[in-house]
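Weekly structure sync, notes
Attendees: PL, DS, HV (note-taker this week)

Item 1: galacturonan 1,4-alpha-galacturonidase
DS walked through the input record. Source organism listed as Pseudogymnoascus verrucosus. Sequence as pasted into the shared doc:
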Amino acid sequence: MRFQLATALTIASATLSVASPTFEAVSNWGKSNAGQKRPDHTSSRPNVKCHPHKPHVPPPSPAARHKVCYAKSHGDGKTDDTPYIMKALHDCNNGGHVVFREGVQYFIGTAMDLTFLNHIDLDIQGMWLFSNDTDYWQANSFPFVFQNVTSFFKLGGNDVNIYGGGTIDGNGQAWYDLYAKDIYTLRPVLFGVDGLKNSILSDLVLRYSPQYYHFVANSSNVIFDNINIAGGSNSANPAKNTDGWDTYRSTDITIQNSYIVNGDDCVAFKPNSTNILIQNLVCKGSHGISVGSLGQYVGQFDIVENVHVYNISMTDASDGARIKVWPNTASALSGDLQGGGGSGRVNNITYDTMYINNVDYAIEVDQCYGQKNLTLCLEYPSPLTITDIVFKNFIGKTSTKYQPQIGTFACSSSTVCNGIVASDINVVSPGGKNEAYCLNVDASTLDVVCTDVFKGFN
Ligand SMILES: *[C@@H]1O[C@H](CO)[C@@H](O)[C@H](O)[C@H]1NC(C)=O
Ligand SMILES: *[C@@H]1O[C@H](CO)[C@@H](O)[C@H](O)[C@H]1NC(C)=O
Ligand SMILES: *[C@@H]1O[C@H](CO)[C@@H](O)[C@H](O)[C@H]1NC(C)=O
Ligand SMILES: *[C@@H]1O[C@H](CO)[C@@H](O)[C@H](O)[C@H]1NC(C)=O
Ligand SMILES: *[C@@H]1O[C@H](CO)[C@@H](O)[C@H](O)[C@H]1NC(C)=O
Ligand SMILES: *[C@@H]1O[C@H](CO)[C@@H](O)[C@H](O)[C@H]1NC(C)=O
Ligand SMILES: *[C@@H]1O[C@H](CO)[C@@H](O)[C@H](O)[C@H]1NC(C)=O
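Item 1 (cont.): predicted structure, written out as tokens:
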């Protein structure tokens, strides 16, 4: 059963200038699936098209499957269903279609290595619910090599299609509360992807991730379409670092037609993300669509290149389009997020068409990430180059936070940033001005009123 995201997206964009749909309005999606039972059935595989922009390589075109396996569940919300899930996936690997039944909850209490998948469809109609045994997961979730990232399960392989309209729920509350007590808690990513190729993930509802919703590493030719992300804390402890997607060591990744309510980057391109297409997203409450952070680790060379971001609605966010690079000196954003001193390049990035509504900075280029002391940052300029960057067709209004500034273009030296263009920036601050802090950039190609008044970084 496909849920009607298209309708919700239309509503979201139509009401941009007025109230946007609340989290409550979308939080029941997927629950309708869990509430009612229908006879066993398979979902037909969605016909995902990349539109209006096309990825750099042809999208995957999976063959039909020839076998159906139904995953069993204890259905009591506490007995681990992982053995049933693994059995169904093995039984139907290499050409089958695995159904996670509509109205059924699959309770997952064991870390699953799903990198063996090959020519398979996962039809998630019901719900995957992860246990909140924080001790177990911290000892057993899969480590990724970047920023202490770990995940509940690790998805990889070739020609894997996941769809079905069901829900994947990270049961995050226990994690939000634990992280508030100890920032070194290793909170798993909901959807860990390592080495996935030629695959399409679509029509899924993701809720209450302990940390990022997706971490996509070592992957190529993967499309995410029609993904609905939300889930906050119901205690005083916020759900932190709930990035929608982070890409890492990956190429030819498309993320499109999705709705994201979260509390950190809507999408972030981490080191070695190339040929990335992002289009038609509604992001609420986020930190924007971000390149970076990059240059975090001494001795590493980070590349983010050939990225096209098109048609994004950005509401109640710290940033719209953002590039964040650590300076060339040890810096700390917080105890668990430190870095600086790395090199690399950000090249050929286009942000085209962004609707800005109550966003602190519509555009933020920041080469002093993690370093509050600007003088110190400029003493140790980053060697990481930022070239051929286009921001165009931005429209809307920022928040009051930095007014009259609507953006910042701050490079740590005059030699590293070249070819930064901002055109048709029809964004104003609440007072009607469109100023921006400009440092070590060519102001003549920026369609904003440059000033040297520094108001701060996000
Ligand atoms: C990606 O692949 C590299 C090289 O095979 C491997 O060392 C690394 O563990 C993989 N996973 C991640 C998250 O980088
Ligand atoms: C990883 O966690 C350790 C402690 O567990 C911490 O010292 C370190 O700063 C963390 N690294 C990053 C990059 O978050
Ligand atoms: C832990 O998960 C169970 C369901 O698996 C739930 O009943 C309980 O409320 C959760 N605890 C917290 C602190 O969220
Ligand atoms: C990124 O690619 C560059 C160039 O191939 C390489 O030197 C660097 O180690 C890669 N970084 C990561 C994190 O894989
Ligand atoms: C832009 O994205 C919205 C969803 O936010 C979608 O409804 C609209 O059709 C998209 N526009 C184009 C030209 O694709
Ligand atoms: C820049 O990136 C786009 C994809 O976003 C790609 O189509 C184009 O060929 C790239 N340009 C160059 C000069 O590589
Ligand atoms: C900022 O860094 C400069 C240069 O290292 C130093 O002189 C100054 O005291 C620092 N300011 C603060 C507030 O730490």
